[in-house]
Structure formats: structure tokens, C-alpha cells
Amino acid sequence: QLQLVESGGGLVQPGGSLRLSCAASGFSVDDYAIGWLRQAPGKERERISCISSSGRTTDYLDSVKGRFTISRDNARNTVYRQMSGLKPEDTAVYYCAGTKRKGTNETDYNYWGQGTQVTVSS
After folding, report:
1. In angstroms, how far is the first alpha carbon of the chain from the final one?
2. Could you report the per-residue pLDDT of 70-111, keeping only the tens digit for each?
3. Strands (E), the chain
4. Per-residue DSSP letter, 20
5. 97 in Cβ contact with 35 (< 8 Å)
6. CA 64 to CA 114: how far, in whole Å?
7. What number is the average pLDDT over the span 59-75?
8. Is the dihedral of CA 3, 4, 9, 14 positive or negative?
9. What DSSP string runs through 88-120?
């Protein structure tokens, strides 16, 4: 069974940092582009970043550029999202998702994790 499992969410103060993990099972994560998406309360889900299957290409939503970094460790079959300078507006459920397409659009993604809650609050 192909599965993605996120972990690492939690409560953090504004300006703080978190690292989210997305562990794959049932398939090799290096065959897939992996994206991170989030859904804030009352808002549409948005795609915030993606890393190509090779790991050579990454892209980020403008609002997280310079604060969030996506990386992958194929030996651990895991993709990471390092988040720093967190703001209250980053509060959301964060999902990782996999695709054999480029992952430019949310509809590209075939496999989804269950999501992990990140809350930024003092």
C-alpha cells in the first residue's frame, strides 16, 4: 500500500521554527515529485512548495520564500520541510503529496498524507 505519513507539527510561537517530515512507505519517494500543501481554517488549500524526484528542482509560494525549505533524503525515503520565522498566518494543516507529474498543480497529486497541524501562536 502506497502511503505518506507526515509528522512534526505542533504549537510554536511566532518567529519560531519547526521541521515537518513526510515519510513514504510502499514506494520509493525518489520516483516522485513531492509537494507540501496547507489548508488554513476557512481557506482553500494551497500548494506551498514542491521538490522534484531528483531533488534538483524546488519551488516555493512567494509568501514562504526565504522562510521554508524543502529537502529530501532518499535513503530514508523521507521529504522534509524546515520552517522558520513562523507567523500566525502560517497556522494550517500541512499535507505532503506525491506525483509522477511535475507537481505544479494540486490536481497533479495522486498520493496524500493525512496532514499534520501547525499552530503559530503566542
Report:
1. 40
2. 999 989 999 999 999 999 999 999 999 999 998 889 999 999
3. 3-7, 10-12, 18-25, 33-39, 46-51, 58-60, 68-73, 78-83, 92-99, 111-112, 116-120
4. E
5. yes
6. 22
7. 93
8. negative
9. GGG-EEEEEEEESS---SGGG--EE---EEEEE
